[in-house]
């Protein structure tokens, strides 16, 4: 028998709303922080859902979900930007959580790839501050996707992102936390197809215009995006942080077709799965968590 994961908002728990009645009696309680893959990825939330929707466990479980669309990792560890999450982890409203679920780094990577070669004032952006090389820097249109990557920029990205993961661990293990040492579970990001498919109301697409602006041949859009996502997965796996577990959910979904402009296969838009895609991801993520829970 499995129990669907019950979801609560942080205010439901902090303010004791009636929808959270019985929260304290649920045997297993998770605290979640993250981006749109834990919240929603469309102007119409019902068009996408989130990974929590497909999660179920052998023991009755619930999650207090503090995730926001578009959130990046350095915002997640900022107590001023995330007062509800901080209060539930560190403040007088804190609980002893059974685990912390984290959806981290996806928006950081998307924002990194989107950095243009020229800023808003018309000044060149140096290669160490961006993900992609210009046609002049790479010498035309090479056949290898790796030739389009600014390795200086990737080093900068790693140097920026890694300390944020360490800061998250420091928050969990702070003296004011009741959850020192509890496991943190993170997922990996599935393979995106760059395409002209936004989320509505002017949100997106994200990668599609960047690759067009940098004159990346369309035949390399998918391999180049996979390279970046695989590197992000490798970065998370290399961290070797205490009680930090990377659940591999990559390659779970059927990729959208190149050139499609709407809901396609398991994807609602360019970077967000549709409800069926999130169900698949949630099941894989939950199974990985269940296997590693103390």
Short summary of the structure?
This protein is of the alpha/beta class and 294 residues long.
**Uncertain stretches of 5 or more adjacent residues:** none
The CATH topology: Rossmann fold
- Helix proportion range: 25-40%
Task: Report how far apart the termini are.
Answer: 19 Å
Structural class: alpha/beta
Could you tell me the number of beta strands? 8
Count of DSSP helices?
9
Beta-strand percent range: 5-15%
Protein architecture, described:
With 294 residues, the protein is α/β, with parallel strands linked by helices. It has a single domain (3-106, 161-206, 236-292), classed as Rossmann fold. The protein has helices spanning 10-14, 73-76, 83-89, 106-113, 135-138, 151-172, 207-213, 221-237, 275-292; strands at residues 3-4, 6-8, 28-34, 56-57, 61-65, 99-103, 184-187, 244-247. The strands form 2 sheets. A 6-stranded parallel sheet has the order 2-5-3-6-7-8, with helices on both faces. The protein is globular, with a radius of gyration of 20 Å. It starts with a strand and ends with a helix.
Give descriptors for this structure:
alpha/beta, Rossmann fold, six-stranded parallel beta sheet, 9 helices, 8 strands
